[in-house]
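Consider this today:
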Amino acid sequence: MIEKIKRCSNKCIFCFVDQLPKGLRSSLYVKDDDYLESFKHGNFITLTNLSKKDVENIIKYSLSPLYVSFHSADDKIRDIIFKNKNHKKSMDILKILDQNEIKINIQIVLCPKINDGNDLLNTLDFLNHSFNNILSIGIVPVGITGYNKNSTLISFNSEGSKELIEVINNYNRQEHKTRIFLSDEFYILADIEFPEYRFYGNFPQMKNGIGLCRNFIQESDNYLKKNDKEIIFCINNIIKSKQGNYINKGQTRSNDLKYSIKNSILILTSKYFFKTMNYQTDKLSYFIKTNKLNINLNLKVKDVKNYFLGGNVKVAGLLTYYDFIRAFNNKTDINKKEFGSYDKILIPNIIFNNDGLTLDNKTKKDFENISENIKFIDPDGKTFLREILGL
């Protein structure tokens, strides 16, 4: 299957595959640049390796939308980024696809002092004025692992993120055909609240880390708000059932019931998602208190550092088994004794690929061998709340 995938012919300065450590499974080193994978799964492609026949097939079968990495409209800067002269051909192909009403979601990987500042504004103007079928433009910060060897790559900091957010906010206030979206990392780095839920529309680039945190907040808020009576009813029934079991066993009198749901839960997440998760657990605690539910929850949210890749990699999907083991055994952090005291340990399910493997080739079974209390949870607000409440 891997051999059938159309490979990337670029040598992009920020290529994540080139920044991986050695010794991983071979599939992780495959540079996918396949238009079918873009159409089916939302993978970003560069269009630099498309033949005339490929373009004809895309148009003939209306393979839309596609997801395209663009980065800059300036030829000299594209020379620096792509390191492939075919990037000029890809610009022509993009125009042909647009003229044939193929919808496109654009990605710009932003690199400080390379394609930011005036170049970014020129690129946004070019995309807005030259095309009619661009659905969205998403901007993400350059990812730099500890194995990067390109000294020209610089990470975004808090100040740079604040400046970028202000620039894009001003740009979006003007009348343009296409809205510009910034990835969640920029708001986290800048310590600025995410845009409102409605700003993201149909969330065209959530898989690209754009709007993921806002969507999680909205999902969990909606679940508590729309299902509050059902949640209260279910929890009270659970408590009554437990109380009945105690009475039947002669462990307490019916007029002296003090049973409550008790759970000690450790939520492990990424550095970037830590604040959002803490924010939502605080809301849940407030919900329990205001509704006087007899629940005694000990919730702790812990951010796990990415030791495996290092650099500025702080998203949940790139955490590994090794990173969690480091968190469990670090004496200044979660130690084994504390780790064993939790009734549930929640780990994000997105650390596994479709084959159930982490980046370091571990499975769910490897985690479960550590503790039977480990549970894997999908990154949606409803699932998160139901798991914590035991519903």
Strands lie at 44-45, 66-69, 104-110, 134-141, 180-182, 261-270, 295-304, 344-348, 374-377.
